Amino acid sequence: LETLGAGALVGYGETAIKVNKRMVRDLGExxxxxxxxxxxxxxVLRGARMTEAGExxxxxxxxxxxxxxxxxxxxxxxxxKAFDEQALEVGxxxxxxxxxxxxxxxxxx
Length: 109
Prior knowledge:
By secondary structure, the protein is an all-alpha fold. Helices cover 73% and strands 0% of the residues. The chain contains 4 helices and no strands. It has helices at 6-29, 37-62, 66-90, 93-97. The model is unreliable at 99-109 (pLDDT under 50).
């Protein structure tokens, strides 16, 4: 925040959230084989949680809630890692290898 400034961080965050929402929407439109429906549903839910955590972080920056930023960043990071783990589990390696909202990137196996 100190390096980029609130405006730049909000702009970046809003762009990342739009990309993530589109990804979650696209994942939700996929039709997995019946045996993978549960894992697919979990991936979509984890993606939605990651989006929500990103929105909460951006909202905190917008109102200047500096005290809450670390907690929200930790929540976003945890949501991103959970999404990446589920993406690898279901074989969505493109999702897992890409940069998520949490800034986490898992190594290519």
